[in-house]
Design a protein that fits this description.
This protein is α+β, with helices and mostly antiparallel strands. 32% of the residues lie in helices and 14% in strands. It has a three-stranded antiparallel sheet with strand order 1-2-3, with helices on both faces. Strands 4-5 form a two-stranded parallel sheet. Strands 6-7 form a two-stranded antiparallel ribbon. The longest helix has 14 residues. The protein starts with 16 loop residues before the first strand and ends in a 6-residue tail after the last strand. 37% of the residues are buried.
Amino acid sequence: MSPDAPLNADAHAAAWGHALFDTALGPCGIAWRPGGIAAVQLPEADAPATQARLLRGLGQGTYPQVLPPAVPPAVVRHAIAGIQGLLAGQALDLREVPLDMSGVSAFHQQVYAIARAIPPGQTRTYGEVAEQLGSKGLSRAVGQALGLNPFAPVVPCHRVLAAGDKPGGFSAGGGALTKMRMLQIEGACLGGTRSLFGSAD
């Protein structure tokens, strides 16, 4: 189904809402509005914790209206299938998933666009993303933008590392360990030479 299809195309689906779904890493959450995906939540300790964090994020300034539990429309089901595939090790970039960035600042949108262009299995550093924006001095701002990313892993902030290929921060449950696990699932290569966790043969 085309990602440009209206989100309320299904007779029993809702144009606004949120839902939980299972992945290889645990229960994830997703929320949507007529303009696209409003937020994605990576797994917390259990499904209720994932739902609580998703709703907490939706209630903080950018998305003040809590979206009710609902049946996902086709475009959201497509996004869910893509996230499930990515977290199971499929080489998916999810760039076709429509995102509602109506409450996201212009700078953060630029950072997220660069992150979305990083293919699965590859990484960049905060400094490299900052250079693409025009100045390596923006590295800290890039890290802050990715730390506030409401769309992970559709916006794959886990593919952006600190200098020296150190993991840097990660706001999802499990922190940097979850970030490294996601890179391991993707078979990420550092410097394009070897798997992050594999043997160097």
